[in-house]
Amino acid sequence: MSPTATAAPPPGLRTRRPTGQVAWPMIVVAGAEKTGKSHLCAEFSKSDLIGRLIWIPIGESDADSFGILPGVDFEIADAHDGTYRSILNTVRAAAAEPRSADGRPTAIVIDSISILWELLSDEAHLIARSRAAEKAARQNRSTPSEDADITVGHGLWNRAKDRWRLIIDTLRRHDGPIILCARLDEVTEFDRQGNPTRNRTWKVKAERNLSYDATAVVQLRSYRRATLTAVRSLVMPLGPDEERTRPGLTLDSLLRDLGIEQTADVRPAPYTAPLPEAGLIEFEREADERAQTNAAAAEMRRHAAAGTLPTPDEVTEQIIRALRDPNDPRSALLMVRSGYTQAVLEKVTISTKRGMVNASQAIDYLRADLKLTADAVSSGTPPEPPTPDQGQQPGQQPDTNEPENPNEPAAPPTSEPAQGATHVTTSPAPTPPPYNGATTKRPNQKRQTEQKIRAALDKEAEYQALVQSVDLREYLADLLPADGDLAGISTYDLCEFVKEQRVEVIRVLIEAKEAATVAAYTKAGDGPCMNIETVFAACKMLNGKPAPE
Questions:
Q1: With bands split at pLDDT 50, 70 and 90, how would you rate the model's confidence at 117?
Q2: What are the φ and ψ backbone dihedral angles of 52, each rounded to 5 degrees?
Q3: pTM for this model (two decimals)
Q4: Other Cβ atoms within 10 Å of 167 Cβ, number
Q5: Strand 244-247 relative to strand 355-358: parallel, antiparallel, unpaired?
Q6: Phi, psi for 76 (deg, rounded to 5)
Q7: What percentage of the chain has pLDDT greater than the value 70?
Q8: Structural domains of the chain ordered from first start
Q9: Tens-place pLDDT, residues 398-412
């Protein structure tokens, strides 16, 4: 099938009107020790807004004791064995429970979500300690002691957050209210420079994004004295810095205040969970495509170095591959020419709808056709269909020795089609600009830029490791490939890592009172810091530590 140089139409947009209905809430009940958060959840089972209440205990053992309260009616799902996978399966089973016979939903209580996050954090620390022990064994060093501080890399923390997110997303899809019990601690506040103050604040012990997912957050700082600290609702607005004390608050009354009772048909909030697995599949597909492109480029370079001519089929295949480039087919066509070299392509004749032309000229025609299509799309005018045989009678073959108009270069004379030649769709195009060899410089310039960026990222990682008093290989342990080669870390992964670690490095610099370095480092922006050596030139805490070479 002959390729075309026409841009694909954009995908259709699907929209819907807002329903105005209130979705089932996800409420966080965070309490200090013995303040009655479990008691509040048990009483909720008496509400006529729900048909059943399923209680999933995680690290808590007092759910049975609340069965003596008058009127309570809930079921305990404690068959899990304490592992993450078993807890996830229990949550999935509870979230799949249908409504009761009278149409009322099933409520789910998880007590406590803080213990779940501790479980995931402990997993990350155990894996990091196991990796450190394996590394010590490979290097014939002593195994780190139980008291030794082990750095948990960002890869392990991302794994813990992904597992947390899987449970939260499962709960989001449940057709009923969700109550998440959490522990509440009073902690010291820090100023902007990272110094402790005399002020104290209350902090929910859980993954830090929990407050974004919750519809409302209820804090029990003292026994049965509820304080609303966050509410996402139009019928019960609460400012971002506002708190509202609600003595005698019950979860039943809170749901009614959120408008659940007035909504005729409450459903789960429409939510489409991100699918990073799809990105992994796409990344692997792109990696395969890059491997094929690199193999084709190596074959092109072999022909160019040996001075041999590729077959017309080989050149046509590379031109078709370039036309299918999803990002920039015009540049991909130039890469085909720079790979083979123009001198080689001018000696290879391929068959097109314009007749027999050399491959370099075919690339010029295709690039011009792509530009015309792009211009037409950007202007909103549909491009006219290509008419490569314009001005010919039906059945008449183009005269390859005469140009179709005076402004177009004549194709080289050919007596018969090349063996195995394939048609490549082209259309009449203006005179292509003369090839001046400039395109061969662009890959070199791009490569030089990539090398400078990589060198800056390598130095920034070394400075970050020095500031945090960690060996560089241990600092980048989660990014290292199987062979342990630092050069094997991709530039993308290294860039994302150093950007994520800047906050922690700046915190350490603040504690060390390196004001000048902090001021310079905070200006690094969101990309690679190309002047990283200048940033740390005046850092006093690095005195005595070898600077990165």
A1: very high
A2: -140, 160
A3: 0.52
A4: 20
A5: unpaired
A6: -105, 125
A7: 77
A8: 26-257 (3.40.50), 297-391+401-436 (no CATH), 442-542 (no CATH)
A9: 343 333 333 333 343
